[in-house]
Predict the 3D structure of the following.
Amino acid sequence: MDFDKVIQERKSVRCFKNKIVNFGTVIEAIDSAIQGPFAGNFNNLKFVIVESEKTIDNIAKQASQTWINQAPTLIIVCSEDMHLENQYGARGKDYARQQAGAAIATILMKLTDLGLSSCWVGAFNYEIVKEMLKIPAHVHIEAIIPVGYEKGSLKKPRKTPIEGVLRWENWNTTRRPPLFREAPMHGVPD
C-alpha cells in the first residue's frame, strides 16, 4: 500500500471479527518496528504476543475495556530502560519512551498496510498485567495493541487540521513569517 494511503487508512478499531490472525503477519509488523531509530542504536524493546482467549479476556478486564477480548491477538510492547539509563543518565528513560512510541506507531501503520486493524491501549492495571504475563519487575509495559480484522467499517474521525498544530519560531507564532525578507537597497547600509 502507498505510504500516504496507510496513514489515511489507519484508525483505532475497537470491534473485531471472530477471525484468527496469522502470527507471521504480526511478526512482520514487529520486525518493521525494530528497523526504526534507537538511541545509540540500542533496541530496548521486547514484545509479548498473546493469543490465548483466556489471557486476552483477563487483560481486557484489567484494562476495563472489554472490547479488547474481541481481538484474536494482542501485542504487548515492553521496554527495558536500564541500558539506556546507564548510557544516558536520566534522559535514558525519556529515550526509552520515545523509542517505544515510535515503534508502536510503526506497528500500527504496518498492521494497516498488511490489512489488519488495531488500537493503541495505554490504560490498564500495569502490575496485574505484568504479573499475569510474568514480565520482570524492571521491564515497563508501554502499550497493549489488540490486533484483528475490523468488524463493520467505521469512518475514521477527522483529525485536527494542520494549521491547528503548527507554531513558527516560537510557541506564540501560529503563522509562518513572510517567505521573502526585504533586502537592503544596494549601497544603502542596513
